[in-house]
C-alpha cells in the first residue's frame, strides 16, 4: 500500500485490520478496535468494548491515498446497512473518499440478558450516547490514518446529532461535516418535551395526508381498533408472545408516516389484516400475516437499544421522566384511538415516541423494563453540546433540512442551525427524513457542492 493509507492495514492490540474482499464495484476491509467503555477512567482501568468499522473504496483504489469519510448512521441503536454494490450516495462518496461504517459491541435482546441486574444494565448503557460515539470516532481516526488527518463526517438523523457533538468537543478531528435530517436541539436539561410538542403539528399533518391518499383505510383502522378493544383484555397476542392493543397499533406511524414509501407500505399491510372466512360462520380474526408484519415493522426485536435509549439522547443534566408519555397526555383527546373509532374520526398514528407501556406489550422489551425506568429517571447526564464552541465554529458544515421531517422538526432544526457558525443550509421538501437513502447520490452531491464551491453562496 502507498501514501497515507499504508498503515491502515497494519494491526496492533488496539486495532485489527482484516483482508480486502469484494462486492460489485467495491473493495471492502473490516477493522476492529478495542476501545474503553468509559473514557473518563484511566484506559487501563476501564472495561473494553469492540468497535467495528468497514472501510469501503472503489475497485482499483485500494492503494491510493484518499481522504476518509466517516458515516454515522441514524438511531440510536441501529447498525449501518451493509453495502452490496456501488450505488446511491455510496457510489458518489467513493469517487472521492474512503468510507468507514461503525458499529459497537452489539447490544441485542439476548446479549443484554448477560447483565445481572437492571442497575448493572443501566450503568452500562449510559456510556452509549453521542459523547462516547465521538470518543470512539477520535480513537479510530488516530489509528486508521497514520497521519491522523481531520476527516469528513456524514451524519444521518441521529448520526447528525453525533456530528454536532463532534463539532462541540473535538472539532480538531473534522475537515468538514454533512448533516442530513440530523440537526439536534441544543437546550440544556432535557429537550425531549420541546421536541415532542413541536412535532405534534407535523404528526397530525402526516396523518391527514395519509388518509387523504388512502381514505378507505379510515374504516379499516376503525374495524381493527374496535376488534382489539372488544377482544379479551383489549388486545390480541402477537406471534412472539407480545400483545397488540389499540395504542400499539398507533405506533405504526413511527415508520409509516415519516419515510419514503412509508404510506404505501402501511396501506398494503392493512390489505392483509383479516383472515379469509373459509368456513361459514367462523369468527373474524386478525391474520397471522398482519400480526407478524406489526412485530417486524418497528424492529424492536432486533434493535431494542433504540427504545431503551431513545429519550436519553435529548438529556443534558436532567432526566426525561418519560417525556413522550407526559406530553401525549396533553393531546390525549386527539390520539385516543377507541374514542376516535366510536366517533367516526380518523384514528391518528403516532410519530417517533417511546412509551413505558411498550415495555409491557412488546415481548423483546419486557426484560429491560426496569433498566429503561432507571434511565428515564437518571438526572446526571453529561453535556452533549457546547453552544459557545458551536457559535465559534470554524469547520465547514452543510445541512439538508427537510421541511416536512417527522422526526427532526423543521423549526427546531432552524433554531439549532442559527447557533452553528458558518453552516450552510439546503432547505427542501423534495425528500422526507430518508432523503439520503432515497435520493440516490443527489443529496450527498448537493451538500458536497455547497462545501466545495460548486454551489456558491448567493
UniProtKB/TrEMBL annotation:
Signal peptide: none annotated. It holds the Pfam family Abhydrolase_1. It comes from the Eukaryota. Keywords: Hydrolase. Residues 99-217 form the AB hydrolase-1 domain. InterPro entries: AB_hydrolase_1 (IPR000073), AB_hydrolase_fold (IPR029058), Serine_prot/Carboxylest_S33 (IPR051601). Belongs to the peptidase S33 family. This is AB hydrolase-1 domain-containing protein.
